[in-house]
From TrEMBL:
Pfam families: DUF885 (PF05960). It comes from Pontibacter cellulosilyticus. This is DUF885 domain-containing protein. Residues 1-27 form the signal peptide. It comes from the Bacteria. Keywords: Signal. The lineage of its organism: Bacteria, Pseudomonadati, Bacteroidota, Cytophagia, Cytophagales. InterPro entries: DUF885.
Length: 442
């Protein structure tokens, strides 16, 4: 599949936006609800390992053979029970829950089979060399692509997609350079970007600026979102930040956006896209809608879909101008600078964890394609080796949403309402991306 056509098979499939219309529960709805509740009880009784990004932790947490057999029994029984449901008689949200159940039953039975093989082959604890150098390393990587992204995609397709995105973003950066008068002066351009004019050194000033930008976004939010009554977002620095700390983090338990203030420095070019991603309408808004909707889905807290969550937050960075941000080329450039990192990471993650790249090869690729950010290169390479696949979730998830947005606009024309589009994506809470589209009918 060509990179330019990646995921395009999804574009002919309409989003399940109308399934939420209020309908009386059918007997099949009630039957499915009982099945899901029993499945959730059985799942929790197995004491399944919690979500972790580290491949070492994941391999170490694989249950023993007896535990895996019990898991297998649960999923096989649920699969047999699911066959007793007539999906044509399900209504509203239950159609979505049913497709999510089938997705998880298939995915987890694949996982269990892989973990059984691993238990037979692993003779020692996992090492820190990378997932590729563990027993069944390529098989785990391929499986985690499906689990993290919830889309059918291969390593080769991802690598081609990442290279295409690298070229696209570099072209956009060149356009900004021309706009700023540096079309033929690369050295002067980056000398200018590294000047102190873009650096804030006082924590209170950073918080004040974020607060001002947040208020601007909230004023514009009704243009793009139906629901705007959410709990306030707060700001503080990441405690004890170091060279490996991320640019920003969202803490849902206290609705706080934590920014990186390592060495008492914060770059103003990063503030707009970080606020959108971590705050509103990114993770904070997404978390608030999930809390408000209080989904009745018994599977709601059993599984997590990284491309749904991170893809949404990355997608919202595209809404900056409509929400009153990116008022100068520099703020938009900050978004592009980080988008270039994300795009290159797609290629590098496959290279490191599937193709056998060395760290030196990954560093050479970084230096070839990402100027002016060598200070974080080693951090990102180490991250990809520790957390294989995770970096794909941003670009792949955002690309999926943007393609769905384009399709909705084409189909509905003047009737298209972006507010309804956004609400429809969020209203069921985290889901596999393939569940957000109907299967193509032959």
């Amino acid at each position: 599949m060509a990179a330019s056509k990646i995921y395009t098979w999804l574009l002919c499939l309409p989003l399940l936006f109308l399934l939420s219309r209020s309908q009386p529960a059918s007997n099949q709805d009630q039957k499915l609800q009982a099945l899901l509740q029993n499945f959730a009880i059985g799942y929790r009784a197995l004491n399944m390992p919690g979500v972790t990004l580290s491949y070492i932790d994941r391999l170490e947490r694989i249950q023993d053979t007896q535990g895996l057999v019990k898991q297998e029994q649960l999923f096989k029984q649920a699969a047999a029970d699911a066959k007793e449901i007539d999906p044509t008689k399900l209504t509203g949200k239950y159609k979505v829950y049913y497709r999510q159940l089938l997705y998880e039953l298939d995915l987890n039975q694949r996982r269990i089979a892989l973990e059984k093989k691993f238990k037979q082959q692993a003779k020692q604890p996992p090492t820190a060399d990378g997932i590729l150098y563990q027993p069944l390393g390529k098989e785990f990587y391929t499986y985690w692509l499906q689990e993290y992204l919830s889309l059918p995609v291969t390593p080769d397709e991802l690598k081609a997609f990442g290279m295409q995105e690298v070229q696209n973003v570099k072209q956009q950066i060149r356009q900004v350079r021309r706009q700023l008068g540096y079309a033929n002066d690369s050295a002067g351009f980056y000398t200018h970007l590294n000047s102190s004019r873009f650096i804030l050194t006082k924590e209170k000033e950073i918080i004040s600026r974020y607060q001002q930008k947040y208020e601007i976004v909230m004023q514009h939010l009704p243009k793009l979102f139906l629901v705007t009554d959410i709990r306030p977002l707060y700001f503080t620095k990441i405690a004890d930040a170091d060279k490996d700390s991320p640019p920003g983090v969202y803490a849902p338990h206290n609705t706080t956006f934590l920014f990186n203030f390592y060495r008492q420095r914060h770059n103003t070019r990063s503030m707009d896209f970080l606020l959108l991603h971590e705050g509103v309408p990114g993770h904070h808004y997404q978390s608030e809608r999930r809390r408000q909707l209080n989904s009745e889905n018994p599977m709601g807290n059993l599984f997590w879909y990284f491309a749904y969550s991170e893809g949404w937050a990355a997608y919202t960075e595209e809404l900056g101008q409509e929400l009153g941000l990116y008022q100068t080329p520099y703020e938009y450039l900050g978004k592009l600078e980080w988008d270039l990192v994300r795009s290159a990471r797609v290629v590098m993650d496959v290279g490191l964890n599937y193709d056998g790249w060395t760290k030196e090869q990954a560093m050479a690729f970084w230096k070839e394609h990402i100027p002016n950010q060598d200070d974080i290169a080693q951090r990102e390479i180490d991250r990809m080796l520790r957390w294989p696949v995770q970096v794909h979730t941003y670009k792949v998830g955002a690309d999926f949403i943007l393609k769905q947005l384009q399709q909705e606009k084409q189909q509905k024309g003047s009737d298209f309402d972006i507010r309804a589009f956004h609400e429809a994506f969020l209203k069921y809470g985290p889901l596999p991306l393939v569940v957000l589209v109907e299967e193509e009918r032959g």
